[in-house]
Amino acid sequence: MDTVIFFGYTAAYLALLVWGCVLLARRGRVDASAIPLLVIAGLVYDNTVIASGKWIGEGPLLEALSFGRFWIHAIVTPLLVVWAWDACRRAGARWAATLAAAIVAIVFAVALMVLEYVTVLAGLQIEAGEEYGVLSYGNAEAASGPPLMVLFVAAALLIAGIVVWVKQKSPVLTIGTVLMIIGSAVSIPVESGAVTNAFELVLLTSIVWTTARQDALERRR
User: Fold this and answer.
1) What is the DSSP letter of 121?
2) pLDDT for 143 beyond 70
3) What does the alpha-carbon distance between residue 65 and residue 60 come to, in Å, rounded to a whole number?
4) How far apart are CA 48 and CA 45, in angstroms?
5) Cα angle value 150/87/19 (rounded, 5°)
6) Are 79 and 111 in contact (CB under 8 A)?
7) Which of 16, 63, 114, 144 is surrounded by the fewest CB atoms within 10 Å?
8) Is pTM beyond 0.70 here?
9) Is the Cβ–Cβ distance between 80 and 39 less than 8 Å?
10) Cβ of 153: how many Cβ atoms within 10 Å?
11) 166 forms bridges with which residues in the sheet?
């Protein structure tokens, strides 16, 4: 059943990717608001590899593809901090309109990449395992709970969500981020290793929706 769910996630992220690309084409420019497209593309790859694991089979190919999952996550996920800053700027927060705020966001994102490398990627050992019909390679020494990098990114998104809510009367990003945090912290009593990933999909949907709303508000000016 989990294989079907992961393929479902792949289809959902592809739909989000198309939506995001349409928004990008309408804006006619590539800027920080396009960053979620990189994250979504990474999640398309991630879920496709997981869903296809049992057909690829245990071995060097699936192992190499799985290492790619960890590296993509470490590089693109921290960039959401830059998107969070940009969302605040587009919402009209004065502090976010400064060069200093932009520099802090970029430096913070790079610092989180370094943190993920030091805490996860350096010396990463992955091992094959099968759960609920899904064959995948996971971190052999993974600690319980979400990585520190994810927590910092969630905090940045929560701040952006509150700013957007106050400035543009849209609670969607805040709701999506809070649901993601709850989903990461609470154990759901279901026989599936894929269900909790739905909160990640909710978060990315709220991010793309927020981008679409901010685009619409800018066109009205």
Assistant:
1) I
2) no
3) 9
4) 5
5) 85
6) no
7) 144
8) yes
9) yes
10) 26
11) none
